[in-house]
Amino acid sequence: MTTLQNKRIVMGITGGIAAYKTIELIRLLRKVGAEVRVVLTPAAAEFVTPLTLQAISGNPVSQSLLDPQAELAMGHIELAKWAELVVIAPASADFIARLNVGMANDLLSTLCLAISAPILLAPAMNQRMYAQSVTQQNIHALRQRGMQFIGPNAGEQACGDVGYGRMSEPHEIFTAIENHFTVSQDLVGLNVVITAGPTQEAIDPVRYISNHSSGKMGFALAESFVQRGANVTLISGPVNLPTPAKVKRLDVLSAQQMWQVALESAVKNHLFIACAAVADYRVAEIAEQKIKKSGDEMQLRLIKNPDIVSDVGHLTEHRPFTVGFAAETQQVAQYAQDKLVRKKLDMICANDVSNGQVFGQDNNALTLYWAKGSIALPETSKAKLAQQVVNKIIERYHAK
Ligand code: PMT
Question: Is the pTM of this model over 0.85?
Answer without folding.
Answer: no
